[in-house]
Design brief:
The protein is mainly alpha-helical. About 60% of the residues lie in helices and about 5% in strands. Strands 1-2 form a two-stranded antiparallel ribbon.
Length: about 180
């Protein structure tokens, strides 16, 4: 670039913005000495910077974060079996705990059920004994006589009972017939 009138073309300016070392040594010297080329280079850099800011300003926000090179660890193939083994051990521990908590009360429950069955058997024996003798032993002397002469007609004479139905549909039992008239 011996001629001062020869300035860097547009491609030369782009190369100087990207990497000045890619220019020839003559073009590089011209760029440092020529104020016109230096100004054009600065103008191009400013336009590119503004272009980047405008692109950032007007670009829509991404819906999903873009990852160009996802990080992978070397031991990722080991993780799945380790998690599966840990999950299996946890299930085994829960199963053993549940088995113990269910089995021990069942053994105690069986003993309690046998005891309760025996108590029920004794209660039923007492009930069957009461069917034959309703009164307790202390009151048996009262009922020793024969009361066959006390039939239903005699009881109606002693305690007259009247059965009437009121407005609500309920039955009223009255001891005297004279109360019906009132």
């Amino acid at each position: 670039m011996k001629n001062k009138d020869m300035h860097l073309n547009h491609n030369g300016l782009i190369v100087s913005v990207v990497d000045e070392n890619d220019l020839t040594s003559g073009n590089r010297e011209h760029l440092f000495t020529c104020s016109i080329c230096k100004g054009e280079k600065e103008q191009l850099e400013k336009e590119l910077k503004n272009f980047g800011l405008m692109a950032k300003k007007f670009a829509p926000l991404p819906r999903k974060k873009i990852i160009l090179f996802p990080e992978t660890s070397r031991n990722s193939w080991l993780r799945r079996p380790v998690y599966a083994a840990g999950f299996a051990v946890a299930l085994l521990m829960i199963g053993l705990w549940w088995y113990q908590s269910v089995q021990v009360p069942q053994k105690n429950m069986t003993a309690e059920l046998l005891l309760e069955t025996e108590k029920d058997r004794q209660l039923m024996t007492e009930i069957f004994a009461l069917e034959d003798n309703v009164l307790p032993d202390s009151c048996l002397f009262v009922s020793k006589g024969d009361y066959s002469y006390l039939d239903e007609e005699f009881m109606d004479f002693v305690i007259p009972v009247a059965k009437i139905q009121n407005n609500d549909g309920y039955f009223l039992y009255l001891k005297q017939k004279s109360m019906l008239m009132a």
